[in-house]
Specification:
The protein is of the alpha/beta class. The protein is built from 6 helices and 13 strands. A hairpin with a 4-residue loop joins strand 2 and strand 3.
Length: about 210
C-alpha cells in the first residue's frame, strides 16, 4: 500500500505475536478482548507520534523546568459500533481523559452497504484530534461513512485505526479520505464472497461479546 501516503501498516513484532493468538479460533472471549486492548495500546503509541504538545512548568525535587504535555481533553475516541468498543480501553490507557463518542453502523447482508443508525459525539469534538476505531476494515464502507459523518460535524483532525484490514478496504478509505491518516496493524490477503477478511479472525464483535 505504498501508493497511499496516508496509509501506515505496522510491522511491530509484538503486534504480530498478539495477532497470531487473536486469530486462533480457540482463543476465548476474555483473552480475545484483552488482546484487542493490548494491540490497540501499542497502535496508539505508534500512531500518535506527532500529537501536539504544549509547554508546562514542572518543579522537580531539584529545580523548576519546562516540560511538554498533551493538552487535557485534546483527544477524542470514536468507536464504530459495536466492535469498535473493544478498542476504546486500549486508547484510554494512553489518553485516560479522552472523551468518547459513538457512531452506529450496520451492514446490509445482501448489498454489504453500510447504514448509519446512531451518532452521539462529545461537545467540542471539532477542535479535538479524533481517533476513529474499528478492529476490522473489510470493504471500507462503514469506515468511509463514519469518516464522512465526523467531517459533516466539523471534525478536521481525524486518525483511523484498525487491527485487521483487507486491501479492498484500505483502498476505499485512502482514496475517499486522503486527508485522514489510516493506521493498520495487519494487512490481510483479501475479502471472500461474503465480505469477510481472509485469513481474518471471524466476526470481531461476536468474539468480543460472546454473541452469534
Amino acid at each position: 500500500m505504498r501508493e497511499y501516503p496516508n496509509v501506515f501498516i505496522f510491522e511491530h513484532p509484538l503486534i504480530k505475536h498478539k495477532v497470531s493468538i487473536l486469530r486462533d479460533k480457540n482463543t476465548g472471549m476474555k483473552e480475545f478482548r484483552e488482546l484487542i486492548e493490548e494491540i490497540t495500546t501499542i497502535m496508539t503509541y505508534e500512531s500518535m507520534r506527532d500529537v501536539a504538545l504544549v509547554p508546562v512548568e514542572v518543579e522537580t525535587p531539584l529545580e523548576k523546568t519546562v516540560q511538554y504535555r498533551v493538552p487535557e481533553e485534546s483527544v477524542a475516541i470514536v468507536p464504530i459500533l459495536r466492535a469498535g468498543l473493544g478498542m476504546v480501553n486500549g486508547v484510554h490507557r494512553v489518553f485516560p481523559t479522552a472523551r468518547v463518542g459513538h457512531i452506529g453502523m450496520y451492514r446490509d447482508e445482501e448489498t454489504l452497504e453500510p447504514h448509519e443508525y446512531y451518532c452521539k459525539l462529545p461537545e467540542g469534538i471539532e477542535d479535538k484530534t479524533v481517533i476513529l476505531v474499528d478492529p476490522m476494515l473489510a470493504t471500507g464502507g462503514s469506515a468511509c461513512d463514519a469518516l464522512a459523518a465526523l467531517k459533516k460535524r466539523g471534525c478536521k483532525k481525524i486518525r483511523f485505526m484498525s487491527i485487521i484490514a483487507a486491501p479492498e478496504g484500505i483502498r476505499a478509505v485512502a482514496e475517499a479520505h486522503p486527508d485522514v491518516s489510516l493506521f493498520v496493524s495487519t494487512l490481510d490477503r483479501c475479502l471472500n464472497e461474503n465480505g469477510y477478511i481472509l485469513p481474518g479472525l471471524g466476526d470481531a464483535g461476536d468474539r468480543l461479546f460472546g454473541t452469534k
